[in-house]
Specification:
The complex is a heterodimer.
Chain A: H1 5-29, H2 35-38, H3 41-51, E1 66-69, H4 75-85, H5 125-139, E2 145-150, H6 157-168, E3 174-180, H7 189-192, H8 198-204, E4 208-213, H9 217-229, E5 235-240, H10 263-272, H11 277-285
Parallel strand pairs in A: 1-2, 2-3, 3-5, 4-5
Chain B: H1 7-21, E1 25-29, H2 40-44, E2 49-51, H3 56-67, E3 72-78, H4 79-85, H5 87-96, E4 102-106, H6 124-129, E5 135-137, H7 142-154, E6 159-163, E7 184-187, E8 192-196, H8 201-213, E9 218-222, E10 225-227, H9 231-241, E11 244-251, H10 256-267, E12 272-277, H11 287-293, H12 298-311
Parallel strand pairs in B: 1-2, 1-3, 3-4, 4-6, 5-6, 8-9, 8-11, 11-12
Antiparallel strand pairs in B: 5-10, 7-9
Classes of the chains: A alpha/beta, B alpha/beta.
């Protein structure tokens, strides 16, 4: 794959900026879904800043690649990406979770530019992605469809209805990524509902299965490239991640799922992400 | 000739005709196409017939996705599985997402062959009516079915259409044309108004005939547009005839009776009698057995109405 080290470094910088924005948004808004947002940042960065084709000036361009955040609670990560692309202004990020704003707790189609499908009720995004991929085939379009699902989300039966059907329809224009951060709301996925052997499950449903480190951008890009080269079946990328990645007090815990940060936690996290004192204090003064 | 046919027997051919002219129309089936009589569509348009298997939740999501590409997906299966089974998918992927999906709930209400409670949708109107953005319709006969499907293809937004299983005699005026949010008077009367829809129109008209013999002239109105509802016709009926009666092939909680009563209580309070399934589950039986069991024969309606009028 022809991607230079400089390009990788650039993507890593973007991912860093997105992580900072997520922490700032959740600080200003008074809290929210930190853990599953932070685990998905490198995946979203790789998709929106390298893999996907779209027009930043027209989020409804009919030939655009589609992305569905099926794990809708990770919306802060998506909104932060949208602000980097230009679908949202940076100022609008500070309206996160405001009652009449576009940035609802879970993404809403029609309310926030770039949101392809309302999600939040887990298990539903993959089916919609299958519909889009089928629609591309019926329409003779060559856009691709990307769906990010959570690991806890795979407890939902609809995921497996969808898994069976994507394979039946031989949707090689569909790439699904699992943000496998190993935790749901209450506990580890092993304790809540064991998912393993996960790769074998998806293989047995007829999918091309790839397994990667979901925080290593070169691995993500490589897997996305491989997915495009496989014909006649959909691809699932099992991206091993850490829930609450880069939040020192919460990394790799179920407790990171929904967080109201203390001031110390804000300082510690933003400092770790490379923010200086002024930037940190500016964020804190915006807290609602 | 559509007159006297069952809505579910005609939808397949209507879709084939529509799809010949409109390349955007696609059908999504959850292994019910032979019963809902849409299976021939597959022969004509194999690429536009999507079989998802017995997976109604996935079906709703796939339809939502298809619609975002500019297609017009009509999904259909047993009404009860469109509503109860896939309720959250209809809510989030269709109503909240405002996707252009048309849901056909076939075998709506009590009359589902001898399939019993698990297959009888007596709460689907209530579920669908409570979803913002959702339109809820049921045609009174095969002719209105055709008009409604053409309308559905033109209308942009989520829609739920109940489709009856068995033949219905047509009572609509020859020049009738379906309009969203509009009702049609199919019998004039001054003493009370009966609001009805779907496959109980025939029994309702027979009941109105029996009432005529008793010297009571009932106005009968077909309310095929259950949401949005024809508020004007309801208020007019309340003012002109006083007493209102509703007929539901559905639980009396949340069906047309509830919808009419909501308007009456807010706009022009008069007494409302709701006739329908009285908060019990369905039963296995023939249509005639069920009409008798649930008090939905013309004679039962007439007796209920006479008792109600005496008490009023």
């Amino acid at each position: 794959m022809s991607i230079s080290n400089n390009q990788i470094l650039e993507l890593e910088k973007i991912a860093q900026r997105i992580k900072i924005k997520i922490i700032k948004m959740l600080t200003v808004s008074g809290g929210g879904h930190a853990g599953g947002s932070m685990s998905a940042v490198e995946i979203l960065t790789s998709l929106y800043f390298h893999e996907m084709k779209f027009n930043p000036k027209n989020h409804l361009d009919e030939n655009r690649d589609r992305f569905i955040l099926s794990k809708g609670h990770a919306s802060p990560a998506l909104y932060a990406v949208f602000s980097e692309i230009g679908f949202l202004t940076e100022d609008s990020l500070w309206t996160l979770h405001e009652i009449d704003g576009p940035l609802q707790m879970h993404p809403e189609r029609g309310l926030c530019p770039g949101v392809e499908m309302s999600t939040g009720a887990l298990g539903q995004g993959l089916s919609a992605g299958i519909g889009m991929a089928l629609g591309a085939r019926i329409r003779g379009k060559d856009f691709r469809v990307y769906v990010l699902i959570g690991d806890g989300e795979m407890d939902e039966g609809q995921i497996w209805e969808a898994a069976m059907s994507a394979s039946k329809f031989k949707l090689d224009n569909l790439t699904t990524i699992i943000d496998y951060n190993k935790f749901s709301l209450t506990s580890s996925t092993t304790e809540t509902m064991p998912l393993e052997p996960l790769a074998d499950k998806w293989k047995s449903f007829g999918w091309n299965v790839l397994e990667i480190n979901g925080h290593k951008i070169p691995e993500i890009l490589e897997a996305l490239q491989q997915a495009k080269e496989v014909k006649g079946k959909p691809t699932i990328i099992i991206a091993n991640t850490f829930k609450g990645h880069n939040i020192p007090s919460f990394e790799n815990t179920a407790a990171s799922h929904s967080v109201s940060f203390t001031l110390d936690q804000v300082r510690e996290t933003l400092k770790g992400l490379g923010c200086d004192e002024t930037e940190i204090n500016t964020t804190i003064t915006k807290m609602k | 000739m559509l007159n006297g046919m069952a809505p579910r027997d005609v939808i397949g051919n209507i879709f084939i005709d529509m799809a010949k002219k409109n390349p955007d129309i696609v059908l999504v089936d959850a292994d019910f196409g032979t019963a809902s009589k849409i299976f021939d569509f597959k022969k004509h348009f194999p690429d536009r017939f999507i079989q998802v298997g017995i997976a109604e939740q996935n079906m709703m999501g796939i339809a939502a996705g298809l619609s975002t590409v500019g297609l017009i997906p009509f999904v259909s299966t047993v009404a009860v599985f469109c509503s109860r089974r896939a309720c959250d998918q209809v809510t989030i992927s269709i109503a909240l997402s405002h996707t252009n999906v048309k849901i056909l709930g076939v075998y709506a209400g009590l009359f589902v062959g001898k399939n019993g409670a698990s297959h009888q949708s007596l709460e689907d109107i209530s579920i669908m009516r409570a979803l913002p953005n959702m339109v809820v319709l049921q045609p009174a006969d095969a002719i209105e079915t055709e008009q409604m499907l053409h309308f559905a293809a033109e209308y942009i937004g989520p829609m739920y259409i109940r489709i009856g299983r068995d033949p219905i005699k047509s009572y609509l005026p020859p020049d009738y044309k379906f309009q969203l949010g509009k009702s049609v008077t199919i019998k004039e009367g001054k003493d009370l108004t009966i609001f009805t829809y779907g496959d109980l129109v025939e029994e309702t008209m027979k009941a109105a005939g029996l009432l005529s013999e008793d010297g009571i002239e009932a106005r009968v109105i077909n309310m095929s547009s259950i949401k949005p509802i024809d508020e004007e016709a309801i208020v007019k009926a309340a003012k002109e005839t006083g007493t209102i009666v509703t007929i539901d092939n559905h639980n009396i909680y949340g069906g047309l009776g509830s919808a009419v009563a909501e308007v009456v209580t807010e706009k022009y309070p008069v007494k409302v009698k709701r006739i329908g399934v009285k908060d019990v589950f369905g039963k296995t039986g023939s249509n005639d057995e069920m009409k008798k069991y649930f008090g939905l024969r013309a004679i039962d309606m007439r007796n209920d109405i006479l008792t109600f009028l005496k008490k009023s």
